[in-house]
Amino acid sequence: MIRHTLLLRFGAGAAPPERDAALQSLIALCDRVGEVASLAYGPDVDPRARDDFTHAFVVVFGSEEARDAFQALAGYTAALERLSEVAEAVQVAD
C-alpha cells in the first residue's frame, strides 16, 4: 500500500470555494483509478502543527502501480497546477 499525502498551506487569499474546487479536481481523478483503498482530506486541527500547513489530502493506493497510474492520468498535471495557484505551499510524501 502507498499512502500518497499532500500537506497544503492555504493563505487568507484562498477563498473556500477556490480551495474546494482545486481539491475536488484531485478527488475526481481518484475516481478514475482502481486500487484506491481510501481517500481523506480536510483542515489540520492540531494546535501543535508545524510549518503552518492548513490542510491534508491523503489517498491510499493498493500498489505503487496504482499511484503511478493516478499520476499518469490526463488532467493530473492540470489539477496540480490549479492546486498550486490556490495553495501557498504543497509538500508531498509517499
Automatic annotation (TrEMBL):
PROSITE patterns: S_R_A_B_BARREL. Gene3D superfamilies: 3.30.70.100. Residues 2-94 form the Stress-response A/B barrel domain. SMART domains: Dabb. This is Stress-response A/B barrel domain-containing protein.
